[in-house]
Amino acid sequence: MTQDIERILLTRDEIEDKVSEVGRRITEDFRDKDPIFVGVLKGCFIFMADLMRHVDIKCSMDFMAVSSYSGTSSTGAVKINKDLSQDIEGRHVIIVEDILDSGVTLSYLKRYLMGRKPASINIVTLLDKPARRKADVFADYSCFEVPDAFVVGYGLDYNEHYRNLPYIGVLKPEVYS
Length: 177
Ligand code: IMP
Ligand code: MG
Prior knowledge:
Bound molecules: inosinic acid, magnesium ion
Strand content: 35-45%
Largest sheet: 6 strands, mixed
Distance between the termini: 17 Å
Low-confidence stretches: none
């Protein structure tokens, strides 16, 4: 698996330090607000599991599954494959994403959830790739800005592989070209 990685962008330790810091910030900002964290499957699963262990307040969690992506280029279309199982009306929603790339997925999701009248919607993303932004959406909490390269690991995949890498690496272009 590691032979497909061109270089390591973020080490396990760097990720751990930053994720705990963001978890502590969210803890301060949402104290007494009983927020609901909405993880966007599948990419969020490792990040969210680590983040939540640094969020020291009463809160709940739910998950959605959306597909907008096949291979390395966004199709622009967003499909909801799994919806929430809890009501979010009047709740403080915190969407948890792996990466904010074109922003198409998150701007769609934010609008979609806004229709259910939550008290607020915030976005926390592990990675932000601002160079590729098409939609007008930003992250309220972002752990790392990354360059315009296709990255995998720590939950992020290329065609469902590499999610289990404990670090974030740049995939060798020859793997997908
Ligand atoms: P967006 O709608 O273009 O912002 O795309 C968001 C989704 O595309 C993310 O949730 C990822 O699943 C996927 N994605 C975007 N860039 C990358 C990348 O560099 N590596 C792996 N997945 C990516
Ligand atoms: Mg993906």
